Automatic annotation (TrEMBL):
PROSITE patterns: CARBOXYPEPT_SER_HIS (PS00560). SUPFAM superfamilies: alpha/beta-Hydrolases. The keyword Transmembrane helix applies. Belongs to the peptidase S10 family. This is Uncharacterized protein. Keywords: Carboxypeptidase, Glycoprotein, Hydrolase, Membrane, Protease, Transmembrane, Transmembrane helix. It comes from the Eukaryota. The chain crosses the membrane at residues 12-32. GO terms for biological process: proteolysis; secondary metabolic process. One of its GO terms (molecular function) is acyltransferase activity, transferring groups other than amino-acyl groups.
Amino acid sequence: MGIAGRKSFGPRACIVGACLGLLAMIVVFAGVGSASFSQSFVETLPGYPGKLPFKLETGYVGVGDMDEVQLFYYFAESERNPMADPLVLWLTGGPGCSGFSALAFETGPITFNYTDYSGGLPSLVLNKYSWTKVANIIFIDQPVGAGFSYSTTLEGRNSSDTKAAADAYTFLRKWLINHPQFLGNELYIGGDSYSGIIVPLLVTNILKGLEAGLKPKMELQGYLLGNPVTDHFHDQNARIPYVHRVNLISDEYYEDAKSYCGGNYVDVNENNTECVTIMNTIMDCLLQINLCQILEPQCAFSSKKPEALEWDRRVQEAETVRHLLLDDTPMPPLKCRGYHYVFAYKWMNDKSVQAALNVRAGTVENWVRCPKTFTYYTEELSSVVSYHKNLSTTGLRALVYSGDHDISVPWIATLGWIESLGVSVFDAWRAWYNDGQIAGYQVKFMNDHFRLTYVTIKGAGHTAPEYKPKEALAMFNRYLARYPI
């Protein structure tokens, strides 16, 4: 998902017309937004021929004092044994990316048919490497304002790291109360990208609830994270050593950067002209590199070279989507992954699709996969390493994985904070295999109270299952089955 910088986006004053429009929408919401819980079963979807061969449920769960925040979700049952297989709550990154992004582009049971598109409403195909082959998965639009989630009040629009985690905990409690058949299933919390900030907070909230005896009792077993934002400074600072390792900058540039910048490549002092100069040189080397997967093309729709490096994937995507949605002509050759996301915009903003998903009419004007800016969200926490350290005493199992061709959250940053937890290495760095081929590398950490497996997925990018679906499913399946990866 898109990687946000350290800038926080708080509430902004709206102009009179916009506020009046929002107040008018709240009047519309009053009749539909007060329910604590609603659900519907989806048997057919526009673009898919016939009845869906898996069980799909969508709905809203109200959170907040007056259920003013309505969080939309997609629940796909396991295609193997729903009553025995684990339950996974999956949080998508951003902040503000829709859960549908993970469902359609990463680990869900359906995706888009990219090969036969000639305009109009995109068609759907099954994902043979869906994680729902072995688990029940709830994909949630969170925090409020993501996807089809909305608020019935002005104040309810505001969210933050801690509030997002608290709302997700309330969501999960209410969802399980309304789905008692899954109370006995093993529970895992997962997410990638910016959800690396939220997941450990949510897991901590669940543990506190269990300690306090709150109902329903959850069978929490562990958590999993992919290319997770964890510590803003160290995640970003590791980008320079990483691009040197993969030969995107020369030895000379890297040695100069270390010397002139003192190992700090994030908070550069503008008065340190030597550091500023070498960092600008390095940024020039990366201008036309795909930061989420260095081997894939970086597509843009401008005739001139970009003036500055844009780290936020959401900003990059916004220009691609804007260009490709200007008209309904056939898509260009799908040489760029960013083109794939346009299918979601075309499909999810179709009224027949929203009706099939039982989206409440009038609640969200325009569905966005990952908003360019998330206006009413405050990024409170610059690091959650301390949360992981606390979780390393809890008896949980953790899986942390990295697509090893991602610059935005490089694997060396992730392995670095894992090593800082002080948990002993149980199984040293070695290859792991799928279909007789090396799929990546792994190292296991363990103490008397905690087990963490760190895995790289060879050749994958920022959202690893999107790039290497077969290998990612093999990793996920082995983790849930407690089988060595």
